[in-house]
Amino acid sequence: MSVSSVFPQLEQLLPRVSKPIQYVGGELGAVVKDWDATTVRWALMYPDAYEVGLPNQGVQILYEVLNEQEDVLAERTYAVWPDLEALMKENGVPQFTVDAHRPVKAFDVFGLSFATELGYTNMLSALDLAGIPLDSADRDESHPIVLAGGHASFNPEPIADFIDAAVLGDGEEAVLEITGIIRDWKAEGCPGGRDELLLRLARTESIYVPRFYDVDYLPDGRIQRVVPNRPDVPFRVAKRTTMDLDAWPYPKKPLVPLAETVHERYAVEIFRGCTRGCRFCQAGMITRPVRERSITTVGQMVKEGLEFSGFNEVGLLSLSSADHSEIGDMCSGLAEQYADTNVSLSLPSTRVDAFNIDLAQELSRNGRRTGLTFAPEGGSERIRKVINKMVTKEDLIRTVVTAYSNGWRQVKLYFMCGLPTETDEDVLEIAHMAHEVIRAGREAAGTKDIRCTVSIGGFVPKPHTPFQWAPMERPEVIDARLRLLKQEINSDRSLGRAIGFRYHDGEPSLIEGLLSRGDRRVGKVVRRVWEKGGRFDGWSEHFSYARWVEACDEVLPEMGVDLDWFTTREREELEVLPWDHLDSGLDKDWLWQDWQDSLSEYEQDDCRWTPCFDCGVCPAMDTEIQIGPTGKKLLPLTPVNNLRVPA
Amino acid sequence: MRAALDAALSPGLDVLEAVIAGEGSLADRIDASRWQLELPEVDPADAEKAVTAFLDSAEVLVERMTKQGRRTFDARAAVTRCAVAGEPDLPSGAVGVRCAIIDLVVRQVTPAVRPDDVLSGLRVVAGLEPPVPPRVTRLAQGTLTAQGEIVDPLDADRGDVGIGGR
């Protein structure tokens, strides 16, 4: 029985919504296959609007990996705006894929990639629109397997009731393994139904199926234990690591968006993982070990990616791009290859390091000079030791001065507020730092016309980091500190007017904290917020703190907990954490020790260049650091854009 | 040149024909569009009455929300052709849902008059309210000839065009 496109019904609604082009599909790079010629079918979702979701690397990589399999079909779906959601409900149009406008409910797997916990309410909207029961327990063989991935799936407990399974870590091999399991199960005639399929997934020991685990609580609200309720399901589920990234050079055929998106470029991951050990950084902790792509693979990917897509911007992505062992040759090689073209190269925000100015010079050879961004994260040297971001004030000043004297006029500095042990003084230091940046910068640049933007976000403690035990700061305290900081910045008018100040209020961060360290009880809050109309919680136009607080007040007290319990409360060493049964490879004792070290302001080095300090990942996961240098260089390309028109 | 352009583009984007353009921008040469409006469940006779009333009016004021807010403007002046097309032939004995089809040619003006605006105009002059959202398809856009036909905006550059077309 084939599945037909819902586009004829959808098309009638499009003239009545904003930005209708985002729902139309047909992008360069999109793949549409014959439904009946395939056996396993995936609907992949990034649970945010098209403009945010389309450029997401994770989804693009899995989309290609899956579609390369002849009998597998993968299509994409994104969150629809509230105006279309209302019309779809009125007119009975279900959640659809943009590639061929097929109903998501018809697929075998509905995979969602959660880069942030704030996408949970959008997941509920998508399930509801798709006609898939919100609760995993209510689904049957006619419904897809709802599978979560992405960094937030390292603690999926708040959505445990809504998902059928979660994959932790790298998805390339995981999606192929899952496809194989489903293929076999279907070929055998679906024995044992949905339960048997989920059991087969769980038995891989690297796919987490929440329904096979029971959670018991102590009278004071803490978790007593999380245990399997089936005999052959593992006590701990392990994350996945794709080794040898050169063997997985995706995306090869990047999607070219139809509507404006947040990034419009060809992005290459030059390495995964990070061992710098910044204590707040979940991404760095859960993506260990470091695995680089070689300079030649990167060069090849850039060449083919640009030829396929026609993008004129290339992003060299990673958690800390300047740390790639071949970054110098890579940047100069690429700059050379694309010197007379309109292709521009960029690095994401980098560590405060003068070396990065040299790189930035290489990348802006053709004159396009965007702003430089650095992330000191902490205002005082003391707090930087606490978070293990080892950069002195002198390093920072020297780096930005180099930037200004080399022609940059705009520098952006990222900081966080609400870090563990933080005091007002730590935050006020940010102002002093910014003042000195302007003073020194004006001198170096020889002009008063330079700018610095200070951007501050609220700190959110994340699972699988040394700060997973830390208390969050109250929003009132954060807001008060930010006010003080703003005053301090402007206390010197002449310097202050060259400093831009961007910040987020403390409230959204508190809710992110609720979700990031929440357990299954928080799921009831998520559902209540959604029922009350919560959507697009990552967007300030849509996020409602009051709605979340109300939902917490309505739902949590009868279970003996509340919003503060999950956020501002400090955890003890022996408390069972909601994600302890999910193994990121990091040794919990090592994490606790690092937390204690942070409180003593003790710094930890990077294991790429100093001896291993036993964080636990490599022995536990049977992985190793994979870095260069390979010693190779990029060869000149034959000119790509030399269009000779016959006279 | 066609081959060179085609080679420079990604596979799957095919340049079928290339003409070296003369003076003036392409946008300036596109001065009209032809649209087909399908109105399911609307009696062609009712559509005919509405279209006649519309064409008979010197001015038809309609409203539309723009970035600058709600605007009122004339939808009539830009329309050069508006006619109800014959119903498609159905196989004998087949029962179809009636559907009025309107053939519309609109000049490119500022503020732009969209097919939606012409439909609003039909509602304003004759109370025509389609029960099902109409389907609008652009059939052509290009240069409007004196005879009211839309021709390829690059026709003039093809070099071998005489009066009366290719």
CATH A-level architecture of the largest domain in chain A: 3-Layer(aba) Sandwich
State the strand order across the main sheet of chain B: 4-5-1-6-7
Biggest beta sheet attributes of chain B: 5 strands, antiparallel
SS class of chain A: alpha/beta
Order of helices and strands of chain B: HHEHEEEEHEE
Can you give keywords for this protein?
heterodimer, A: about 650 residues, alpha/beta, Rossmann fold, Transcription Regulator spoIIAA, four-stranded parallel beta sheet, 19 strands, disordered C terminus, B: about 170 residues, alpha+beta, Alpha-Beta Plaits, five-stranded antiparallel beta sheet, about 20% helix, globular, TIGR03960 family B12-binding radical SAM protein (chain A), rSAM (chain A), rSAM_sf (chain A)
Descriptive notes:
Chain A: It holds the Pfam family Radical_SAM. Chain A: InterPro entries: CHP03960_rSAM (IPR023862), Elp3/MiaA/NifB-like_rSAM (IPR006638), Radical_SAM_N2 (IPR045784), rSAM (IPR007197), rSAM_horseshoe (IPR023404), rSAM_sf (IPR058240). Chain A: Residues 260-502 form the Radical SAM core domain. Chain A is built from 22 helices and 19 strands. Chain A has 647 residues and is of the alpha/beta class. Chain A has three domains: 7-215, Cobalamin-binding domain (Rossmann fold, 3-Layer(aba) Sandwich); 265-370 and 606-637, Transcription Regulator spoIIAA (2-Layer Sandwich); 371-521 and 561-604, Transcription Regulator spoIIAA (2-Layer Sandwich). A six-stranded mixed beta sheet of chain A has the order 2-1-3-4-5-6. A four-stranded parallel beta sheet of chain A has the order 15-16-17-18. Chain A has a three-stranded parallel beta sheet with strand order 10-13-14, with helices on one face. In chain A, helix 5 (120-130) links the parallel strand 3 (109-113) and strand 4. Residues 640-647 of chain A have low confidence and may be disordered. By secondary structure, chain B is α+β, with helices and mostly antiparallel strands. Chain B has one domain (28-157): Alpha-Beta Plaits (2-Layer Sandwich). Chain B is built from four helices and seven strands, in the order ααβαββββαββ. Chain B has helices at residues 2-8, 26-29, 44-56, 115-126, and strands at 32-40, 61-66, 69-74, 79-85, 99-107, 135-144, 150-151. In chain B, the strands form two sheets. A five-stranded antiparallel beta sheet of chain B has the order 4-5-1-6-7, covered by helices on one side. Chain B has a two-stranded antiparallel sheet with strand order 2-3. In chain B, helix 3 crosses helix 4 (115-126). The two termini of chain B are 22 Å apart. At the A-B interface, helix 1 and helix 9 of A face helix 1 of B.
